[in-house]
Amino acid sequence: MTVVYFVIPCYNEEEVLPETIRRLTEKLTVMIEDGLADDSSRMLFVDDGSKDRTWELIEQFSSENKYVGGVKLSRNRGHQNALLAGLMTAKGKCDCAISLDADLQDDIGVIDEFVRKYEDGCEVVYGVRSSRDKDTAFKRGTAQGYYKFMAALGVDIVYNHADYRLMGKRALDALAEYKEVNLFLRGIVPLIGFRSDYVYYERSERFAGESKYPLKKMLKFAVDGITSFSVKPLKIISNVGIISCLLSVIFFVYALISFFSGSSVAGWASIMCSIWFLGGMQMLCIGIVGTYVGKIYSESKHRPRFIIDQTIIRDE
Predict the structure, then answer these.
(1) pLDDT-based confidence at 224, cuts 50/70/90?
(2) pLDDT of residue 156
(3) Nearest-angstrom CA–CA distance, 269 and 291
């Protein structure tokens, strides 16, 4: 039978952990009884430097429930690094790993379908939201715009997919070969290749606690995704520069014609608008270039993406 590991990144999740563990234990037990999972399957909770009782609860439940395991990072490293730490820990112990969030907004009822597709030969199975009707108009509009923008930049990303996915052992081994520090797993996983498929589901409301992805973090995550997988913004800067030069030549010719025809009028407003516009464009372009330079700087240092402080996995 298939050894399945659930990998769940956690940051200040003490409010949801008891219920999450209860639901996942029930799900895993049913899967084992139905022959979809081996009894050595586990739930692996990754504590990403939480400031509340998250790790204490993981330790407590692991002593009571053999299916509960834990990985404690030495400090907060962010959702993507915590997820990678869990996947790399599970890699040598499972046939496939399913990543999901601690709030269980992603429907765990479709996990059976994930595993069946894996048993049919798929190394990667993506959980894809069938609709965004429950999102606010702002969140729905920005999310859809982001996916379309990423596609326009040439990034191979699965539409309406977050980090709810199954990865087989071969896919996990391939993921381990990607060494970049600036992690964006939604962009990296499709690059791995192998046979893949999709499972569609409805996302539910968070049953407790608060979202760990406020607008500020969502914007940072979006920028990381764009700058980690596409150099088109740099090409856009070049094109804007060329267009600006052409326009300046046109305006220069127009100014000369106006001067020699005696119709030139001092235009303070137009000059100021031009200065502010070009100055703003320059600052924006420098900022975009600076973002890429900063990423190169981070990659060049080759610092570890995470450091594991403790690991709890019961083998019996």
Answers:
(1) low
(2) 74
(3) 33
> Tokens 């990543």 correspond to what residue?
99
The helices-and-strands tally (H runs, E runs) of the chain is 10, 8
Beta 42-47 vs 96-99: how paired, if at all?
A: unpaired
Task: Supply the pTM of this predicted model.
Answer: 0.75
Half-sphere exposure of 61 (CA within 13 A, CB side): 23
Instruction: Report the C-alpha gap between 63 and 45 in whole angstroms.
Output: 14
pLDDT in tens, 74-101: 999 888 999 999 999 999 899 999 999 9
> What fold is seen in the domain 4-212?
Spore Coat Polysaccharide Biosynthesis Protein SpsA; Chain A (3.90.550)
User: Residue 262 corresponds to which tokens in the numbers above?
Assistant: 């005696």
Helix extents (H) in 182-267: 185-192, 215-229, 232-260
Q: What is the distance between the alpha carbons of residues 127 and 123, in angstroms, rounded to a whole number?
A: 13
Q: Is 39:32 a contact under the CB 8 Å cutoff?
A: yes
Query: Encoding tokens for residue 169?
Result: 């052992």
> Which among 112, 124, 22, 33 is positioned nearest to 67, based on CA atoms?
22
Token representation of residue 73: 């990072």
Classify strands 96-99 and 124-129 as parallel, antiparallel or unpaired: unpaired
Task: State whether residue 200 is helix, strand or coil.
Answer: strand
CA distance 229 to 20: 33
Q: Could you tell me which residue, 118 or 144, shows the higher pLDDT?
A: 118
Phi and psi, residue 184, nearest 5°: -145, 85
What single string gives the DSSP state of each residue in 246-308? HHHHHHHHHHHHHHHTT-----HHHHHHHHHHHHHHHHHHHHHHHHHHHHHHHHHHT--S--E
